[in-house]
Design brief:
The chain has 134 residues and is α+β, with helices and mostly antiparallel strands. It has a single domain, classed as Beta Barrel (L,D-transpeptidase catalytic domain-like). Helices cover 16% and strands 46% of the residues. It contains two helices and ten strands, in the order ββββββαβββαβ. The strands form two sheets. An eight-stranded mixed sheet has the order 6-5-4-10-1-2-3-7, covered by helices on one side. A hairpin with a 2-residue loop joins strand 2 and strand 3. The two termini are 21 Å apart.
């Protein structure tokens, strides 16, 4: 399974469309691009693998693997990138501004369900992050 995250960058946050096989799964919000600085920047554009992860805070969620100079880049629910994210990706149902979204849990569960089904079939889940202008 290959997921494509197409970003639009703003000074206060990053808004993206997350697609699978050319179809929109959900939107996503992230921190603004600040040269991959820990906890204040979205991750660099590139290709990554996704795996299942569990924590007490987020329960079952997703982790973006092998991000250069970063650890614990997660995909979890959040509606405000600046207030709730430390470099992670938050699926949202719709945008309410740069780095802001609505109904994150609904979008997160849709994405998580798709990814977990692929992982349960022992398929790789890859994430390609790129600018919407590429």
């Amino acid at each position: 399974m290959v997921l494509i995250l197409k970003r639009t960058y703003f000074p206060d946050g990053t808004n993206s469309k997350l697609e699978y096989e050319g179809k929109l799964i959900c939107n996503a919000i992230e921190l603004p691009w600040k040269k991959n600085e820990t906890k204040v920047s979205c991750i660099p554009e590139g290709k990554y693998f996704i795996r299942k992860r569990y924590s007490n805070k987020f329960k079952w969620h997703l982790e973006v693997m092998n991000v250069e100079n970063r650890k614990f880049i997660l995909i979890h629910p959040a509606n405000n990138a600046l207030a709730e994210l430390n470099g992670c990706i938050a699926p949202v149902t719709q945008f309410s501004g740069p780095g802001l979204g609505l109904m994150s849990r609904k979008a997160f569960y849709k994405l998580k369900d798709m990814a977990y089904k692929a992982l349960d079939r022992e398929e790789e889940v890859r994430l390609i992050v790129k600018s919407d202008f590429q």
